[in-house]
What we know:
Helix content is 67%, strand content 2%. By secondary structure, the protein is mainly alpha-helical. It folds into 2 domains: 2-161, no CATH class; 182-391, no CATH class.
Amino acid sequence: METLAIILGLGACLSVTADMLNTLVATNTNMSRFWLTSILYRRTWRTLRIVYRLLPEDDPDAEREGRRHSLRERLLGFFAPVSVILLLSAWVVQQVIGFGLIWWGMGGVDGADSLFESIYYSGVIYFTLGFGEIVPSEAVPRIGALFEAFSGVLTTALVIGYLPALYAAFSERERKLMTLDDGSEERITPVSLLISRSPDADLDEVISFFEGWEEWVSSVIETHTTFAMLRMFRSKHPGQHWITAAGLIADTALECQIIVGLENRSPYWTLRRIIMLFNELTVGVDLSEYRARLDANYAIDGEVEDNELFQALHRQLTEHGFDVHPLRQAREETLELRRLYDAQLEYLIDSMLAPRGFWGHKIGLPMSTMLDQSAGTGEAPDTTTVDASSAG
């Protein structure tokens, strides 16, 4: 029994140390399914999704108008910070119990005659409390006590360094999202975003806009593969989510590929970065169900002459002043590119319970007034815009 306790204790301590170093130091996203971090996030997120479905459905008008977060959204926003605390607590508990098993199986600790007392002694050493009623009486337990105390100090130091970096990356991500705006208080579409950022159909303005977003996507790739918890952190603003924002930017960059003069410029490079991001976030995921569903939708859309949505998109860009490729060529080019990321995007939206759309910031100014001002005319442009995802 004593030998088994030592083996179990060593296994618990070594596994949690490897998990902690992988998460906080090595930042390797290839975590074992049997490590504590992976188990905790899988189980808690699965439980949260069950609770989420039991709650009343969101009020679409409240979400669109940005009046408040729904009960469901508040629950999702609560999950990420609490999960970090749960993970850190779970690491500590597993280490304390693991060392407790070792001391119980090894012996040589005066006053620790039972498993409970050994775990209590382990906690006293781990947190360097030093009450003194239970003390090691042999050389090996004394050296082991020093090692456990060092483990406690090391865990504290890693956490102190980890949390500021985590929240700094979250803040940087959200700051950029605040600039994702088309001047309206409605759902932002690729066409409305493109027109609002280039009111005179100036290609240089479009290029400058996407240069900034390419930097944002590159930063998200780095931080969200290094700090995997960041993926679960929600925006503080209703109707906004970083995955939906990435999808919106991707679809807008996709539309730019049918505009003469923007091919293979900064929108294209931004799109490449976003595809890389989506691929990184869906490694090992079976996307066949999403692929089949999307391909079926594309087939239903029919030929380009019958696709009213894509025709509307093409017409709006032309009427705004952009020089666009012929209709059939434009659809073929966008469909080919969108198939590189559409299934990944659909999966991420479903798995993260992200809103299907990115909504403009509510400040109380009528949409027509804002669009008039941004366009510099007395007549608002046509706002019946189309998502590239539906125009395909």
